[in-house]
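During the second year of the project, the team shifted from modelling isolated chains to modelling whole assemblies. The rationale, set out in the original proposal, was that interfaces cannot be judged from single-chain predictions alone. As a representative example for this report, we include one of the complexes processed in the last quarter. Its constituent sequences, exactly as entered into the pipeline, are reproduced here:
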Amino acid sequence: MANKVLAVLEQREGIIKRSSFEAASTAVKLAKDLNTSAKAVVVGDAISNLNEVAKYGIQKVIHLKNSELLNYSSSGYTEAVTNLAVEGNFDILILSNTALGKDLAPRLSVKLDAACVVDCVKLNLSGNDIILTRPAYAGKALIDVKLLSNKKVITIRPNVFKALIAENSTPAEILVKELSSVNLKSKVTSFRKSEGKLDVAEADIIVSGGRGMKGPENFHLIEELAEALGAAVGASRAVVDAGWRTHNEQVGQTGKTVSPTLYVACGISGAIQHLAGMSSSKYIVAVNKDKDAPIFNVADYGITGDLFEIIPALTKEIKKVKQS
Amino acid sequence: MKIVVCVSHVPDTATRIKVGSDGKTIDSAGVTYIINPYDEYAVEEALKTKERLGSGEVVVVTLGSENSKETLRKALAMGADSGVLIRDDNQRDSLGIAKALAEEIKASGSQLVFMGKQSVDYDNSIVGQLTAELLDYNCVTVCVKLDINGDKIIAEREIEGGREIVETSLPAVITCQKGLNEPRYASLKGIMAAKKKTIEEKSAAVYTPKTEVVGMHLPAGKQPGRIVGSDVSAVPELVRLLKEEAKVI
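Output from the structure prediction step:
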């Protein structure tokens, strides 16, 4: 059977990530459209939720197991997944465009002599050709890319493709393959969690502050609103460059491109680089003194006024509504 | 030690993108090109490494047309020793770029390569990994902290929610993220000196692409929404809209 599809899943601390189910579901749909089958592979040590993959229509999950691969190893993962893809004659590999997926996908493509396209937001079939749409210029443009190679490695942007529960799913066959040796030329030895509670790249709601906050000492207002909403704290480039906030919070071109359900921009005027990184958010709220600020051109709801009065009131009101 | 830094010549991040007449690339009329912002961290890290070692050479490499020399000059003005322009007037896909770079790195014998974690034009963030695999080098991506001791590398890379500590060794490709260092400004002396530094022109082997851009379009613009009010009295209405209309809280 040609065009066999393989979803390459990602586990952290032995749990398959939610974004990987999107990759699994996308692989199942693509396989169906190509009239072929999809399987999934996951690399790691013990994994607790292997069975969950079946919900998305995957019938066979291959677990490449070795205690040395509890953490990510670019060399170890590349070797293990390449060997499996070659042995199983997989032509199309699908990963989620996470830090791991982005790191691993191009490596696999070289080993498999495949075309590699990352960060796709749309996947279309035109005959047997796959056309992928992906953002470029930080989302200021979208490009359609045709894959000219039979072998393909694709990553899909998290939170864009749906993880669809398959009808009549049956329990997946789980094949555990113990790896006798692993290539540990590069190896993650530990993970250091960042201080912020939530990462903007993964958050469903983001509250961001810009230069209108007037100083780092006022960001507790942003933090309090974020806490009330269960949101991550973001920042504009101006405040990161000024040293008020750390770079891992920066939203926009040269920071993170985000598309949460709700984005609250406080004291952010909306430079083109910032808008590029957040305007695909589902709902945008802007609080800014300047009624002509470009952020209002993309905001669904805006309040023009003094954020030092509005933000605390908003925090209070949200707490009240959430409690009722 | 010879350190190679790969740079790219990209539209300024403030550019308003318009689709060109071919419907596949941007209209470059009036666009200002700059050194890819992430490549500045790569140049800085290479210079710092050379300074720490007390000897060595920093060679900055790009793939492109005559105009790309501006970006090479920028890196030379920061302190790189010499430049290589791999001449190719056609747009290549990431693998095509990586193949040309790998060819040049191999010829140079360099064991340590820096580049930005991604170019801000196509935002692929894969050229580093592709280049490393083609050379069979190790590769740390999205690097925010780097320690090289002899052949041993301990690096930190940014991932969702924190940092991974990675252990690996030379030869290696490191892709650089904001936060790794504070890139130096080119001094007037540096800018003058850069004019005298050599830029060697080379050509790359013919490449058959594996991907093709067949179209470019602009995302559907978001329509401006409504201004709920101009002071604190608008807050309850805003929260009501978020709850009842948007249903996000």
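Chain B touches chain A through 79 residues (CB under 8 Å). The first strand of chain B starts at residue 2 and ends at 6.
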